[in-house]
Structure formats: structure tokens, C-alpha cells
From TrEMBL, chain B:
Recorded metabolic or biological pathway in which this protein acts: Protein modification; [NiFe] hydrogenase maturation
PROSITE patterns from the UniProt entry: ACYLPHOSPHATASE_1, ACYLPHOSPHATASE_3, YRDC
Keywords: Hydrolase, Ligase, Metal-binding, Transferase, Zinc, Zinc-finger
Single Gene Ontology MF annotation: zinc ion binding
Catalytic EC class: ligase
InterPro entries named in the record: Acylphosphatase-like_dom (IPR001792), Acylphosphatase-like_dom_sf (IPR036046), Acylphosphatase_CS (IPR017968), ATPase_NBD (IPR043129), Carbamoyltrans_HypF-like (IPR051060), Carbamoyltransferase_HypF (IPR004421), DHBP_synth_RibB-like_a/b_dom (IPR017945), HypF_C (IPR041440)
NCBIfam families on file: hypF (TIGR00143)
Domain Acylphosphatase-like: 4-90
Protein name per UniProt: Carbamoyltransferase
GO terms, biological process: protein maturation
Lineage of the organism: Bacteria, Thermotogati, Deinococcota, Deinococci, Thermales
Catalytic activity, EC: 6.2.-.-
Coiled-coil zones: none
Length: 330, 757
């Protein structure tokens, strides 16, 4: 198995192995969280594993990611998070202080998100069989009755919104991994986004088509999946893309595209054309949503592609992340 | 004594007036028989006295129509059939078409004479053409080449044109784009607040605007140009600003050869290229400076008018030197559809000179140069594409998709390697679409299904062309290493299949077999036995991947890391920005640091040390800047660039650059000593390898060899010990990759059974 920095490789794994073997209609939707109909209620169920290196980085830690990531996956199907389970895989010999710090971080994050951790499990594996600690969190949420999100709901003309600046998390972690102090003020953006989603639902529930937190593979990968699954083209306006100077600067030195960098506290939303402005306003009025932007729109053509239009009138095709980007300029 | 011959002629012989030419020739020599097109050649039966037949054939071979190119003639003696008249017969259909589409051609002297003859019915008509000239590839929608399958299909012929079209003795017999003012398309001028119809009025008004220093979008043969007075510095500056094009040189179109001669240094060879029917942009040393046209560049890119419209612009008094740059913003592909041009160029062009004839596909201007080893094509497009570039011993069809930058694709059908026009950087959406269309149209023209073809692509796992190739449901896929393809392209176009050579591929970036980023490679072998990597530039680091290709300082960090002692480069005379320190941090961290043997980045490193410390704004800019700088110095002693039997060591070279610079030596001398060092190192490595392994020639390929000074220095050091083979038909840069891919695949194990001998 190839190490997966990219969306394409893991997508291939999911579609080539998991989907056919575990086949069922809910799984086929491949949403951030599964939505189950139960006695008139729509419940959202999700699980995510966290193996980030280093465990602590500016602006966050593995423990916070473990809570926020799962809470956000629930939010992306329009679900209010209700409860979480947490499973720990610990490497024998792990410093007790490290574990305690992470559990504290989880507790704080859970409190901030307003969700209790109601159960879990712990396993200790031999030294060398795991890298410090891995955390898996599962989440249960209640889908807001007013929304029905799906790539299939997306129509040409729809607007694409971003809740805030992109790339902060991925670049921060990358630099922390290399102990590289390029931009001192860079911090991960990890946070729960349910409160922003809630504001959006209150304002434009009927026009809300699709949401996704652009984690691994970044905005480009998330939108490429949308373009393919919805059978549409996505156009982004270069000028409108919110990227902090520090992130842009770091990406420029690293030779990376901010559109390929993971976010942990932002999300993409596609909203009906007429409701784009209202959605933007709703986000901007909510604390933490001040930097939200309208960044693009859905087009009928060309199907399956994401293009970035520049001020210069040019258009660049951005693909899914396939792995660590290799040099190509000859 | 009466004899009869069956003659078949291969080459570019269809759609170029070849059959009427044969007809007239047969008439002239009093021969009977017939001529017809078949799927791959022109076939004729001629009979008459043997002396007349001999004379006929000699004339046919030596003076074919200007647009034709004869590759092969086969004569067979047959029994006379007592034919006394000569006739043109309809085409014979065989199983698969392998006939080639002719490239677009400059307007011919005969048409020009009519264009300016007040008595002629096409006097001053911007769409005049004949079988010897005019549009081909840029108007073809499908094969066979016939008016109904061109962008001229909307215009019905008037009776006079129809008569010319039907008359075998007329210069316009079966000229598919035939037109006249009565029945053909016209030009009009669109300004913000007015529309000027009528060819003459529209062109005159455009000329008036050009003379006022305005910018005009002009629809030409394969796309739109942006034109302005090149001697009006303000107009040139305005164009740069509106186009967001900071420094990349603009191409020029000059009124005539006289103006060209005053503007650039022209050797007879260069002049021949400039005036050839392909009418490419010729890069040649400037004789005077045109502010803003080609900053910090020794050369100007100049072309002559090639459409009747261009001639008319100058006829009505356009400034004698016009900027004629492809119409786009920034580095996008050129606009060629009217709506697209109007949309994308609004805000750039003050007016649009629009011709009604649609353009079927984007065909850029070609770019050529005459160097010390002869002509070099740097961009292969209008006037050349889609002609055959090589013959390969292969029977099944094969498609090679090239590299991602400067992309061009090659289709091999019945052993003929046909190369598409330059398609551009596949990251741009428009270019990627053009790439897909080029592939699809090549396949459909030759009636090929994807399932039956071999598809060849670069080894780079992340190239878009690779992904596209793998998405085709081909008979099989085959990957070729980038630099091997560079070398193989040269062997293929020379038909050197068995010859053993030393192949040197120097460029910016290519994915290597060891996963590193190659770009300074020595190969040994032949197409038949394969190319083995026998040496390379010493490995350096490439911090930040492509970022190092945009920022020469960042490339410098990767190379200087191996130098023991370096001065503080943030201080004068180097004065590197903070990026230098950051890139050093990046290198230390090991994040996104790639091992590389790129000579292109070595050039960038030296450019950075000598003062080019800013971001580059177009590909190869720092290297061009360095060449320009080196030209200002006399040939000084070369820096050491030792070859240890398998690698060229850049460390002594860079140490010398570094300390000479710190000591205050003239940067142009340093640049020159670097060029000479590189040349000397290359030559000593190549000669050693060639002698040890019995190689008969030195192949040079890759973008670095677009550097004319480097080639001159190589020639000087080599002293004709070994013949040098540079690409002639295809570009040395990545524009030639697809031919090399096709050739290496042809000789691969996998295709062994499909090869023809
Ligand atoms: Fe190359
Ligand atoms: Mg997730
Ligand atoms: Zn003509
Ligand atoms: Zn007519």
C-alpha cells in the first residue's frame, strides 16, 4: 500500500476494495458521515482515525483534531453532533504525560464543541508496533430536518463558499514535522464548525446543496470529487480564494498549491445561486465566520473538472492531489 | 519508342496542387495517361516516347509545386495502353488513409501579384489563395480534404470561382479554400462604439489605429494576434501592462525583407528560413534596440507577412515593424475563436480586425533559429505541423503523448511519424482541451480506434499527459523516460536506428528512473539496442521542487549546499533576499527536497550568483539572461568542470563562480567562463565515452541546447572530433519528446513482433 498523502490513492482504495466488499446503499454515498433513517429521525454516524505527526503542533494537537475532525464530519451532512466514542491505540512505553496532555486536549475540544465523549476503548500494542498513539473517534449526530445534502443536488449556477482561509493546518503541520520555522505566526485552524453550519442552515436551509471539509488533499481534492460525483464543472476565482500571506509564502517556497493543503477548521458549501449572498452574510455574521468568501461557482461544463480562473483571464486545471507533488517544470 | 510507366509519389502531395501540376506537365510533354490520389500517395500512368518520359520525370522530381514535398518516387514499367489524352481521375479508396494534411502556407508570389493588380478580380482581397498557398491544416475539419469538410463550407462558390475550381489547367483547380470578393468571406473591424464593414475600410481603419499607437487584435491563419507599433515604446508598454506580460519577448512582423535586414543580423541561411513558405518567427541578433520588445535579450523574433491580410496591412501604411504577439493574457494559449477573442481580449485590444472564415484549430507561429550547427526549430507549429517528422519501422498504429510542457503529440501510422502542432502547457485548460482534440482528431482522421493503438507516455507519474494516456483504452501502454526520449527524437528523425551514439540530454526537469529529478544525462547506445544512462551531472538538491524552477535563488541553495565554504550571500555583491535563508532552512529540514541532476537549475544557480535574483516570469528566463550576459565578454578561460568517468562535478565550477564574483570580477566574464566550462566538461565527457564505446556521433538534445552560445562553445572544444547531431525537424525542448517516445517504444521488447524491417 502506498502512503496516502493524496486523495486519488485513497479514493482508489475505497472504490476498488471497500465499496465492492462492503456494498450497501448508504456506503455508496461516500459522504463524510452516513445518514440513517430511524423511526422518523435522520441520524448521522461517522468515524475517523487520527495519526498525525507531530502530536502537538502550533495551534493544535492530535487530541483536538480527533474531536474536531469527527464533529466536522457530522456537521458536513448537516448533523448536530450528539455524542462521541474514542478509541486509543497506545504504544507500550508511551510517556504518560503525553497521553494525559492529549486526553485533556480532547476534553477541552469536546467541551468547546458541546459534545460529550460517552465511551470508548483502549489497546496497548508492543513497542514499535505503533507510533506513540493513535486515536479513533466515532460520532453520532442528528441531521437537521430542513436539509438534504448530496452532490446530486448541485446545479449549474450554484455558488461555492469557503468558511475562511485555507491551508493553515496542513502547512503548519508540515513545517512542524520538518521543525521548520518559515512563518512564525502560522497556526493550525482546527476547530469545530457546527456553529457556522448551524447559522447557514438557519438562513438558507432550502438552498444548501452540499458541504465538505477539505481535509486531506485540500479544496482541490474535495471539489474534484464533487465535480465528478455531481457531473458538473467547478470554477474557482483565484482572486477570491482566501489564503493567508503566511500560507501563501510558505507554499511558494515549498512548491505547493494551497488548494492541495489540508484544512481542519474550514468547510466548503455549495448554495443555490439566489442564496449565495445570504449564505455569505450568515457566515460572516457568525463569530469565526468573518473571513468567509464566495469563491466560485458550478458550471454545466466541463464535467468532472475544477478550474481556477485568474485575473489575467487564464484558467488552470487543478487536479486531485495524487501524492507529494513532484517537480514538472522543464 | 513508346513506353509506359506507373509512377507513385509519396510525401506531401495532396491538397497542394500536385495532380493539376502533373496534368500540366503531361500536357507539356505530350504524354497520355492519368493521375489520381490514393490513400497514401499520388499514382499516375504516363505513356509516350521514352525521352519525353525521362524529361517529364526529371521536371516532376526537381520542380514540384511550392507546397509539395516529395519523399519517395517509385517507377514501374508497364505495358502501354495506347492512351493519348491525359486525365485527372477520382481518388482510389484503400483500406486506411495515410495521406497527410498539408501545413498552412504563406501566400504565394502568383497570388500576391494578383492581390496588387488593379485588373484582377481579387484585387486587394484578403482571402486570396490558390493550390500553391494559403490555409490547410487550420481550416480542415475532417478528411478527405474537401471544401465541405473545411471551415469554408459555408461559402458557396460563385460561377467564376466554380469554373476555376473545376479547370485542371487553372492554378485554383481543386483549391479548397478558393474564394473571391463576390462569393467569399470578408474582414470587418469592431471598435467599442463602431463597426467598420468592408475589407478595405476595415483594414484601413485598423492601420490608422495602429499608427496612433493603439493595440489591435488581428485574426490571422491559426489564431488571433495582438498588434501594435513596435517602435512606439508607449504602445509596447501599454500592451505589456494590459497583457500582464512583464518581460517575455514579443514577436515582430516586419513589412518586408529590407526592414528585417535593418532590424536583425541575417545570414543567408537565416534569410532562407525567414522567407521560406512556412514563414516562421526567426530569432536573430538585434541590430538595434526596440524599447520594451525583448528586454535583456540579444535576439529579436521576427517574421514576414504570410497572409494576404498582413500584406494589406502594410500596403495601407501600417508601421513597418509591428509587434505581433499571440493574443492572450499572460501565458495562456492563443485565442482563435471570435467570441473567445472578444471576451478574453476586451480590455487589451482597442479594436478587433475580424475575418469571417473560422479557424478550425489553434496553430501558433513557429519559432526557429540558425545556430552554429544549422537551423533549429524551437516551436513547431504553423507551416510545419502536421507534416511527417520521421519514418519508423512499425506497422501497428502508435500514439505518443509527449510531456506536459510545450506539449505536442505524435501519431505513427503505417510507419509515418506525424507530429501535431505545439499545444502548450497542459496545466492550462485551453491547452489541455487542444491536446485532447489533437489526439482525437489524429485518431479519427486516420480512422483509428483507441483499442488498436499503442499509447506511449512519459515516466512522470503526475503528468497530465500520463494520466490521459492511461485513461485511453489502448491496446497497451508504455512509459518512456524523459531524457531518453529527448535523445531518441534526434535519432528517429535521422533514421539512425542502429547507429551507436553518445546522447546528452540537458534540460530543466524530467522524472528519472531512480525517482530523482534528472536533467543532466549522458546516454550510450542506439534506438535498436536501447539507451543506457552512463553518466550525469553530480546530484544536487532541489528544495521546494518547482519553486526552485521559479526562483533561481532557491535553485542556488540546492547546489551551493555542497560547496565547503561560501560567503554570506545576503551581502553584496550577491544581496540575496530572505528567500535564500528560508530555502536554506527548507533544505536543512529535508521537507520537499528532491535529488536532482538538472543542468537547467545549474544555469539558474549561476544566474542568481551573477545578479538574477528575482522570480523568473517565463520559462528559461534566467538562462537566457545568463547567455546574454556571457555574450558581452570575450572568450575567457573556462572554469573547471571535471568528469570522473560517470559524473560531471559542478563543485569546482561553482566555487570559481562564487569567489570570482565575490572578488569583483566582471559578471559577464564569469558567465562566459561558466558557458565555456560547461562546454568543455560536456565535450571531454562525451569524447571519452565515445572513444571507449565506439560511438559514431554526439547527440545533443533538451531545452538547454536552445542556448546558442553554449553550442558555439561546444563546437569550438569539439574541433570536429565527433559529428554533432541536434534535432532538426523537432524542437530540442520538450516539444520533441513525443517523437522520441514513439521511437523508443517502436524498438522496445514489447513491440518486437510488430516491427517491420
Ligand atoms: Fe525536457
Ligand atoms: Mg474525515
Ligand atoms: Zn497562391
Ligand atoms: Zn467567387
Amino acid at each position: 500500500l502506498a502512503h496516502g498523502a493524496g486523495g486519488k490513492a485513497s479514493r482508489r482504495l475505497i472504490e476498488g476494495l471497500f465499496l465492492p466488499l462492503l456494498r450497501n446503499p448508504t456506503l455508496a454515498g461516500l459522504a463524510d458521515a452516513a445518514v440513517l433513517e430511524l423511526e422518523g429521525l435522520r441520524l448521522a454516524l461517522t468515524a475517523d482515525s487520527f495519526v498525525v505527526k507531530p502530536i502537538v503542533f502550533p495551534g493544535g494537537s492530535l487530541g483536538e483534531l480527533a474531536i474536531n475532525g469527527t464533529v466536522n464530519d457530522l456537521a458536513m451532512v448537516g448533523a448536530r453532533p450528539l455524542a462521541l466514542l474514542a478509541t486509543f491505540i497506545l504504544e507500550a512505553g508511551l510517556d504518560a504525560g503525553v497521553l494525559e496532555t492529549q486526553v485533556k486536549a480532547m476534553a477541552q475540544a469536546a467541551e468547546r464543541a458541546g459534545v460529550p465523549v460517552v465511551g470508548g476503548d483502549t489497546k496497548v500494542v508492543e513497542h514499535g508496533k505503533a507510533d506513540s498513539l493513535y486515536v479513533t473517534t466515532a460520532g453520532l449526530g442528528l441531521v437537521d430536518p430542513r436539509v438534504d445534502l448530496s452532490p446530486k443536488a448541485v446545479r449549474p449556477g450554484d455558488q461555492v463558499l469557503l468558511s475562511g482561509p485555507i491551508g493553515d493546518h496542513g502547512v503548519t503541520v508540515l513545517l512542524a514535522r520538518g521543525e521548520l520555522d518559515l512563518e512564525a505566526s502560522l497556526r493550525s485552524d482546527t476547530r469545530p464548525v457546527w456553529f457556522l453550519v448551524e447559522a447557514l442552515i438557519e438562513k438558507v436551509a432550502s438552498g444548501l446543496r452540499w458541504m465538505r471539509d477539505p481535509t486531506r488533499g485540500g479544496v482541490a481534492t474535495a471539489l474534484n470529487e464533487l465535480a465528478r460525483d455531481a457531473g458538473v464543472g467547478v470554477v474557482l476565482f483565484e482572486e477570491a480564494l482566501p489564503v493567508r500571506e503566511e500560507v501563501r509564502g510558505a507554499c511558494e517556497i515549498l512548491g505547493l498549491d494551497p488548494l492541495h493543503i489540508a484544512c481542519e477548521g474550514q468547510f466548503l458549501a455549495v448554495v443555490a445561486k439566489e442564496q449565495g449572498e445570504a449564505a455569505l452574510e450568515a457566515l460572516r455574521r457568525t463569530p469565526g465566520g468573518e473571513e468567509a468568501c464566495l469563491v466560485g461557482e458550478i458550471r454545466a461544463e466541463p464535467v468532472g473538472t475544477v478550474q481556477v480562473l485568474s485575473r489575467y483571464g487564464g484558467s488552470r486545471v487543478v487536479d486531485m492531489l495524487v501524492g507529494d507533488p513532484l517537480p514538472r517544470i522543464c | 519508342m513508346k513506353q509506359a510507366w506507373r509512377v507513385r509519389v509519396w510525401g506531401v502531395v495532396q491538397g497542394v496542387g500536385f495532380r493539376p501540376f502533373v496534368y500540366r506537365l503531361a500536357q507539356a510533354y505530350g504524354l497520355g495517361g492519368w493521375v489520381r490520389n490514393d490513400e497514401e500517395a499520388v499514382e499516375m500512368h504516363v505513356e509516350g516516347p521514352s525521352a519525353a518520359l525521362e524529361a517529364f520525370l526529371e521536371e516532376l522530381s526537381n520542380h514540384p509545386p511550392p507546397a509539395a514535398r516529395i519523399d519517395r518516387v517509385v517507377i514501374e514499367e508497364v505495358a502501354p495502353e495506347d492512351l493519348v489524352v491525359f486525365e485527372i481521375r477520382e481518388s482510389a479508396k484503400r483500406d486506411r488513409p495515410t495521406v497527410r494534411i498539408s501545413p498552412d502556407l504563406a501566400v504565394c508570389p502568383a497570388c500576391l501579384k494578383e492581390l496588387f493588380d488593379p485588373q484582377d478580380r481579387r484585387y486587394l482581397y484578403p482571402y486570396i489563395n490558390c493550390t500553391n498557398c494559403g490555409p490547410r491544416y487550420s481550416i480542415v475539419l475532417a478528411l478527405p480534404y474537401d471544401r465541405s469538410r473545411t471551415t469554408m463550407k459555408a461559402w458557396a462558390l460563385c460561377p467564376v470561382c466554380a469554373r476555376e475550381y473545376e479547370d485542371p489547367l487553372d492554378r485554383r483547380f481543386h483549391a479548397q479554400p478558393i474564394a473571391c470578393p463576390a462569393c467569399g468571406p470578408h474582414y470587418f473591424l469592431r471598435e467599442e462604439d463602431r463597426l467598420t464593414p468592408g475589407d478595405e475600410a476595415a483594414i484601413r481603419r485598423a492601420v490608422e489605429l495602429l499608427r496612433e499607437g493603439r493595440i489591435i487584435a488581428v485574426k490571422g491563419l491559426g489564431g488571433y494576434h495582438l498588434a501594435c507599433d513596435a517602435e512606439n515604446a508607449q504602445a509596447v508598454q501599454a500592451l505589456r501592462e494590459r497583457k500582464y506580460r512583464k518581460e517575455k519577448p514579443f514577436a515582430l512582423m516586419v513589412r518586408d525583407l529590407e526592414v528585417a535586414r535593418a532590424l536583425i543580423e541575417l545570414t543567408p541561411e537565416a534569410e532562407a528560413l525567414l522567407t521560406s513558405s512556412a514563414r516562421p518567427i526567426l530569432l536573430a541578433p538585434a541590430r538595434r534596440e526596440l524599447p520594451g520588445v525583448a528586454p535583456e535579450n540579444r535576439d529579436l523574433g521576427v517574421m514576414l507577412p504570410y497572409t494576404p491580410l498582413h500584406y494589406l496591412l502594410f500596403h495601407y501604411g501600417a508601421p513597418p515593424v509591428l509587434v505581433m504577439t499571440s493574443a492572450n493574457r499572460s501565458s495562456e494559449p492563443m485565442a482563435y475563436r471570435d467570441e473567445e477573442a472578444l471576451e478574453k481580449l476586451s480590455g487589451i485590444a482597442d479594436a478587433f480586425l475580424i475575418g469571417e472564415r473560422p479557424i478550425a484549430r489553434r496553430v501558433d507561429d513557429s519559432v526557429v533559429r540558425v545556430g552554429t550547427f544549422g537551423p533549429l526549430i524551437l516551436r513547431r507549429a504553423r507551416g510545419y505541423a502536421p507534416a511527417m517528422v520521421a519514418r519508423l519501422p512499425l506497422s501497428p498504429p502508435l500514439l505518443a503523448v509527449g510531456a506536459d510542457l510545450k506539449n505536442a503529440v505524435t501519431l505513427v501510422v503505417e510507419g509515418q511519424a506525424l507530429m501535431s502542432q505545439h499545444l502548450g502547457d497542459l496545466e492550462h485548460y485551453e491547452a489541455f482541451i487542444a491536446f485532447q482534440e489533437a489526439v482525437q482528431s489524429l485518431l479519427s482522421v486516420y480512422e483509428l480506434e483507441a483499442e488498436e493503438i499503442w499509447v506511449v507516455h512519459d515516466l512522470h507519474p503526475q503528468y497530465r499527459s500520463t494520466a490521459y494516456a492511461l485513461s485511453l483504452s489502448a491496446r497497451s501502454h508504455y512509459a518512456v523516460q524523459h531524457h531518453q526520449a529527448h535523445v531518441a527524437a534526434v535519432l528517429a528523425e535521422r533514421g539512425a536506428f542502429e547507429e551507436r551514439v553518445v546522447g546528452v540530454a540537458f534540460d530543466g526537469t524530467g522524472y528519472g528512473e531512480d525517482g530523482a529529478i534528472w536533467g543532466g544525462e549522458f546516454f550510450l547506445g542506439s534506438l535498436a539496442e536501447g539507451l543506457t544512462r552512463v553518466g550525469h551531472l553530480r546530484y544536487a538538491a532541489l528544495p521546494g521542487g518547482d519553486a526552485a524552477a521559479r526562483f533561481p535563488i532557491q535553485a542556488a541553495v540546492g547546489f551551493l549546499d555542497q560547496i565547503e565554504e561560501i560567503p554570506d550571500l545576503t551581502q553584496p555583491p550577491f544581496s540575496f533576499s530572505e528567500r535564500y535563508l528560508k530555502a536554506r532552512e527548507l533544505l536543512r529540514s529535508g521537507l520537499r527536497v528532491f535529488p536532482t541532476t538538472s543542468v537547467g537549475r545549474l544555469f539558474d544557480t549561476v544566474a542568481a550568483l551573477l545578479g538574477f535574483a528575482r522570480e523568473i516570469t517565463f520559462e528559461g528566463q534566467a538562462a537566457i539572461w545568463l547567455e546574454h550576459l556571457a555574450r558581452k565578454a570575450l572568450p575567457v578561460k573556462p572554469y573547471p568542470f571535471p568528469w570522473n568517468g560517470k559524473e560531471l562535478d559542478f563543485r569546482p565550477l561553482l566555487e570559481a563562480v562564487l569567489w570570482d564574483r565575490a572578488r569583483g570580477r566582471d559578471p559577464s566574464e564569469i558567465a562566459r567562463a561558466f558557458h565555456r566550462g560547461l562546454a568543455q566538461g560536456l565535450v571531454s565527457a562525451a569524447v571519452t565515452l565515445a572513444e571507449a564505446h565506439g560511438a559514431i556521433a554526439l547527440v545533443l538534445s533538451g531545452g538547454v541546447f536552445q542556448n546558442a552560445l553554449l553550442l558555439e562553445e561546444i563546437r569550438a572544444f569539439l574541433r570536429e572530433v565527433l559529428p554533432v547531431w541536434l534535432p532538426r525537424e523537432v524542437p530540442p525542448n520538450d516539444g520533441g519528446i513525443s517523437l522520441g517516445q514513439a521511437a523508443l517504444a517502436t524498438f522496445s521488447e514489447s513491440l518486437a513482433l510488430d516491427r517491420t524491417s
